[in-house]
Amino acid sequence: MINFKKSILVAISSLGISGNVSAGGFRLLNQDAEAFARGNAFTATADNPSAIYYNPAGITQLEGRQVSFGGFALSAGFDYTSPSGETASADSTFQLAPQIYYTNSPDDSRFSYGIGLFTPFGLVVDYGRDTNFSTVAIDGELLVATVNPTLAYQVNPQLSVGMGMGLNYSEISISRAIGLAPGDEFSVEGDGLSVGFNAGALWQPVEECSLGLNFRSSSKVNYSGTSTATGFSDSSTDASLRLPMNIALGASYRPSSKWNIEAGIEWTDWDAVNVTVLEGTPFGDVPFPLNYDSGYTYQLGVTRSLEQGYFFSAGYIYSENSSPDLNFTPLIPDADLHLWTIGFGRRGEESSWALAYAIAYNGGREVRGNSSSSLIGESADGDYETLNHAINFSYQFSF
Question: In sequence order, which residues have a C-beta less than 8 Å from that of residue 97 and are 6 or more positions away?
């Protein structure tokens, strides 16, 4: 386990991964430019190496050895207005995260295999100290990097199945003011590991239609780290966080070779994310309640193939809010979110590329009746608006 952890740390540091907020709790939707350009409606198509994430059964559609390198940049724009009219904004600097996928479908074999490295969960939010909820939150960062070896089998020309193991490495840090003296602060940081799995199926009963199913299990990350507080000695601190289970269904319709229209729905078991307790801080055990509600994400996408391998895609995503007002935290300012996506690219015999852009907007969320663990009674009540921008690029080649 120690050797595995060291290898993951080397991979992460060399790739420069950092987390971001996207939609639905702290889940990240951007895992491939071609898929994201069509509103992530990709479960029933899954015809490039990112199928390792979207539907592992899909890698049986690929020939030979293929590698996809990509990454996304996201600007998480969050604006806050207190009930008394005070305002604050989170740092909207673009954050970066890569994705890498490798697949191999040997000739004359029904088996395909591959491996992926991606960030399925993450956030980076920084409001600074000049807010009226600084004792609730100043800044926070969460990173979950997953290594996902995958094996798929083509049962027959119409049906494929696949599964993989998710090896997760996570880092977390949180800071907030104590509120008893100017400049005082409490912070905690740590890292941990967890193991889960994913499985999928792809069925194409007729040439024009295909159905896809993708399942990703929950896993529990146990963190070990250090907490600090102004006026106290550093303390060894432990905590755990449940990463939720996710189920995705998709249906693709291809009325001709030039069009692909897909609709999808995902359910995420956010109910499994309850209270994280920071054990062993200078203040004893400190609860960090989330108490999320499970919810759905709806996806619709279309791709139009053009001449010489070029294509154009567009999509729409609606993500339901998972965070109740009572335990809402500005570090994860979740809300009902609308995302519009657009992109284009080119598929060639030996190499392909895709570029996608997305804008996410929630129109404003009103939080009232918030109950925080602030020492001086501050709450996160107020109005929150989201305006996020994301750019995703991928390059794929076969060899």
Answer: 17, 18, 19, 20, 28, 30, 71, 72, 74, 119, 122
Contact 122, 28 (CB under 8 A): yes
pTM of the model: 0.90
Range 124-132 average pLDDT: 89
**Could you tell me the two tokens for 310?**
């070029």
Q: What is the structure's pLDDT at 345?
A: 98
The beta strands (E) that lie in 230-381 are given as 235-243, 246-256, 259-268, 275-281, 284-289, 295-305, 310-319, 337-347, 351-361, 365-367
Closest CA to 260 of 222, 312, 212: 312
Residue 24: band (very low, low, confident or very high) from pLDDT cuts 50, 70, 90: low
User: What proportions of the chain, in percent to the nearest 5, are helix, strand and coil?
Assistant: 10, 60, 35
Name the H helices within the chain. Answer: 2-15, 33-37, 51-54
pLDDT digits (tens, 9 = 90+) for 188-214: 999 999 999 999 999 999 999 999 999
Cα gap 90→95, rounded to integer Å: 13
Dihedrals φ, ψ of 14, to 5°? -75, -25
For residue 223, give the amino acid letter: Y
Are residues 78 and 386 in contact, defined by beta-carbon separation less than 8 angstroms?
yes
> Hey, what domains does the chain have and what are their CATH numbers?
2-398 (2.40.160.60)
